[in-house]
C-alpha cells in the first residue's frame, strides 16, 4: 500500500484529505506542523508527501529541505500561496508539484497518482552510518556510541551535501556555493575548518578518516 504523509495545520483540510485518500486505497498519516512532519516522515518513510507551506512553526520550504536531506519521495505542495515567486521557491527547494488552494479533489487525486507513478521513496532511509555514529538527517540528530553529538547549522549543511552524494566527489566550489552561498568561491579554509570539526565528532580517528575524505585540490567525498 502506498503511504502518504499529509502536512497541513487546518484540521478540516487534513481530515478531508485523509478520508479521500484512504477511500482510494492509500495509507495516510497526518501532521499539523513542520517538526511533527519531519518526525513522522522519518518513522513512516512515505511514498508521497502532501505539504502545506503556511505551517505554524516553520515555512514549508524548510520542511522540503529537511526531507530532501534523505528522501527522494515526491513532494506535492498544496498551498493558498498563488504567487509565481512562491511556486518557484517551493519547486527550487525540491518540491515536485504545486496545487493552489482552493483545489478540486479530483484534480488533486490525479496529481497524486501521477506523482506516485513517477517513483517513491521505498528504498530511502533517513539514517546513515558513519563508523559508530548514526546520522539521522530527517530528525537532525547524531548519536555516537549511544551518546548524542551536537552539530552546528553549518556542519549540518556541509554533512548533508556529502551524505546526499555517497561515493561522489563534491568539488570545493560546489560545496562553498551550497553551504555559504554563490559569492563564496575561494574560501577553501572554511571547508578545511568545518571538515576537521566533523571528523573530530564523527570519525573514529580524525587524523586518519575513512568516511569523510579529502581529495587534495579538488573537493571532498563521503565514503559509506
TrEMBL record:
- Response regulatory domain boundaries: 3-116
Keyword Lipid metabolism recorded? no
The protein depicted here goes by the name Response regulator
Extract the DNA-binding region annotation as residue ranges.
125-224
> Could you name the domain of life of the organism this protein comes from?
Bacteria
List keywords of the entry alphabetically: DNA-binding, Phosphoprotein
Q: Which InterPro entries match?
A: CheY-like_superfamily, OmpR/PhoB-type_DNA-bd, Sig_transdc_resp-reg_receiver, WalR-like, WH-like_DNA-bd_sf
Residue list for modification 4-aspartylphosphate: 52
* Organism encoding this protein: Glycomyces niveus
* Alphabetized PANTHER family for the sequence: KDP OPERON TRANSCRIPTIONAL REGULATORY PROTEIN KDPE, REGULATOR OF RPOS
Q: Which Pfam families match?
A: Response_reg (PF00072), Trans_reg_C (PF00486)
OmpR/PhoB-type domain ranges (all copies): 125-224
Amino acid at each position: 500500500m502506498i503511504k502518504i504523509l499529509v502536512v497541513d495545520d487546518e484540521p478540516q483540510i487534513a481530515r478531508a484529505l485523509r478520508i479521500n485518500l484512504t477511500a482510494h486505497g492509500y495509507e495516510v498519516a497526518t501532521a499539523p506542523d513542520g517538526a511533527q512532519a519531519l518526525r513522522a516522515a522519518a518513522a513512516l518513510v512515505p511514498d508521497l508527501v502532501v505539504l502545506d507551506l503556511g505551517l505554524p512553526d516553520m515555512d514549508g520550504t524548510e520542511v522540503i529541505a529537511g526531507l530532501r536531506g534523505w528522501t527522494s519521495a515526491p513532494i506535492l505542495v498544496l498551498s493558498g500561496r498563488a504567487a509565481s515567486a512562491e511556486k518557484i521557491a517551493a519547486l527550487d527547494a525540491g518540491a515536485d508539484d504545486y496545487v493552489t488552494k482552493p483545489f478540486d479533489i479530483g484534480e488533486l487525486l490525479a496529481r497524486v497518482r501521477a506523482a506516485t507513478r513517477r517513483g517513491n521513496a521505498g528504498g530511502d532511509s533517513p539514517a546513515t552510518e558513519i563508523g559508530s555514529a548514526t546520522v539521522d538527517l530527517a530528525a537532525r540528530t547524531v548519536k555516537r556510541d549511544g551518546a548524542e553529538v551536537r552539530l552546528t547549522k553549518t556542519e549540518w549543511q556541509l554533512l548533508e551535501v556529502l551524505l546526499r552524494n555517497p561515493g561522489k566527489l563534491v568539488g570545493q566550489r560546489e560545496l562553498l556555493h551550497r553551504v555559504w552561498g554563490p559569492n563564496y568561491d575561494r574560501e577553501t579554509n572554511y571547508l578545511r575548518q568545518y571538515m576537521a570539526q566533523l571528523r573530530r565528532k564523527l570519525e573514529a580517528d580524525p587524523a586518519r578518516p575513512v568516511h569523510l575524505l579529502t581529495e587534495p585540490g579538488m573537493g571532498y567525498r563521503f565514503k559509506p
